[in-house]
Design a protein that fits this description.
Length: 332
C-alpha cells in the first residue's frame, strides 16, 4: 500500500468498538495512511455486553501496525453527564499519550471538540457514513442482516453454531455437507476421520486428545469464514462418549470442554436408517445404536442443550433440519 503519511506525525483514534466493524476498518486504514504512527484507545465499561478485553483483541488484529491500548476508566459517556466531561477524558488520554497526538481521526462530530482539547488537528472520516454505511448498534441489533459488515475476527462471536450429532452411520457427515451447501456457508468435518484413516480406522487411547484438539481448532478456524451459520459434524461430547465406550474413561479437560462448548442448536440424527459398514464404525447391532442414541439424548438434556430430532427418509431429514435452522436464524 502506498504511504502518504507525514514523517513523524502521530494520530489518535478513540472508541468503544461495540463491536468493531468494517466502518472501523476503513477508519483504521485511512488513519494509518495519513499518520506515521497511530494509537487506538479501546474504551470500555464493565456493564457493556461484549467484554472489553475481547474488543481490544479484535482491534489489535484489525490494525496490527498500531499501538492499541485498552482503557477501562469508568468515564462519563456524554458531556451532559458531567460538567468536567472533556477534562476527564483529556486526563485519561494524556495518561496513555502524554505528548498528545498531532491528528485526531473520527467519524463523529465529537472529533472536533476532542482535537481542540488535545491541541491536535481534526481529520474527519466519512461523517455521513456513506462509504461504509454501518454502526455498532445496527450489528448488535441485526447481526445476521448486517453480516457483510462484520470483520472475520468478530464473526465467531455472532455466528450461529449448529452441531450434527448422534450415533454412527446416521448420515451426519452427508447432512452437514448438504446444509453447508444449502446455506452457502462452511462446515467443520469430523476430525477423527482424517486422523484415523491412515490406521484403517483404529483408534488408540492417545488419539482421543488429538481428536478433541483437532476438532476444536477446525471449528474455531472455520467460524471466521462462516456465512451466518457454521455446521459442525459431531462435537466434543461425542468424543467423550466414544472415549468412555472404547477405553473406559476420558481426559478431564475434554469433559470440561464438552460442558463449556455450547451450540445454538443440535440436530440429533435418529437410527431409523440402515447401518453401513465402514472401518471407523464399531456398532452394527441395532440395540447398540439405540443405546448410543439414548446416551446422546441424555448428554444433551443433562446440559440443557437445544436439539431437534432428525428422522425419516434422507429427504425428510434434510427438510426437517432446514426447518430447524431457519427457525434458529429467524430468532437470531
Amino acid at each position: 500500500m502506498e504511504k502518504i503519511a507525514e514523517a513523524g506525525r502521530s494520530g489518535l483514534i478513540i472508541g468503544k468498538f461495540l463491536p468493531p466493524h468494517q466502518g472501523h476498518q476503513y477508519l483504521f486504514d485511512f488513519a494509518r495512511s495519513y499518520a506515521e504512527r497511530l494509537t487506538v484507545l479501546v474504551c470500555t465499561l464493565r456493564t457493556e455486553p461484549i467484554p472489553g478485553e475481547t474488543r481490544a483483541a479484535w482491534v489489535r488484529e484489525m490494525i496490527p501496525c498500531a499501538r492499541v491500548v485498552h482503557v477501562t476508566d469508568e468515564n462519563p459517556q456524554d458531556p451532559r453527564e458531567h460538567p468536567e466531561f472533556w477534562q476527564i477524558w483529556e486526563r485519561t488520554i494524556r495518561r496513555v499519550l502524554p505528548e498528545g497526538p498531532d491528528f485526531v481521526f473520527a467519524s463523529e462530530s465529537y472529533g472536533w471538540k476532542l482535537a481542540e482539547v488535545l491541541g491536535a488537528e481534526y481529520v474527519p472520516v466519512d461523517h455521513a457514513r456513506q462509504l461504509v454505511p454501518i454502526s455498532g448498534s445496527e450489528i448488535r441489533d441485526r447481526p445476521m442482516q448486517n453480516w457483510d459488515y462484520i470483520p472475520s475476527c468478530v464473526r465467531p462471536h455472532y455466528v450461529r453454531r449448529v452441531c450434527v450429532f448422534g450415533p454412527e452411520s446416521t448420515g451426519k457427515s452427508s447432512l452437514a455437507r448438504q446444509l453447508a451447501k444449502h446455506y452457502r456457508t462452511v462446515y467443520a468435518a469430523e476430525y477423527a476421520r482424517g486422523l484415523l484413516d491412515h490406521k484403517d480406522g483404529r483408534c488408540d487411547p492417545e488419539d482421543i486428545e488429538r481428536i478433541a484438539r483437532g476438532h476444536i481448532a477446525s471449528e474455531e478456524a472455520l467460524a471466521r469464514q462462516a456465512n451466518r451459520v457454521l455446521f459442525c459434524d459431531t462435537d466434543v461430547i461425542t468424543t467423550t462418549i466414544w472415549s468412555e465406550i472404547l477405553f473406559g474413561g476420558c481426559p478431564k479437560w475434554i469433559r470440561e470442554e464438552a460442558d463449556r462448548r455450547a451450540y445454538h442448536l443440535y440436530l440429533l440424527t435418529d437410527v431409523d436408517v440402515p447401518w453401513v459398514k465402514d472401518p471407523q464404525r464399531y456398532q452394527p447391532a441395532d440395540t447398540d445404536r439405540r443405546k448410543f442414541l439414548q446416551r446422546c439424548i441424555g448428554e444433551l438434556e443433562r446440559r440443557r442443550r437445544p436439539y431437534a430430532r432428525i428422522s425419516g427418509t434422507w429427504e425428510e431429514r434434510f427438510a426437517r433440519a432446514c426447518a430447524a435452522v431457519d427457525d434458529l436464524l429467524e430468532r437470531a
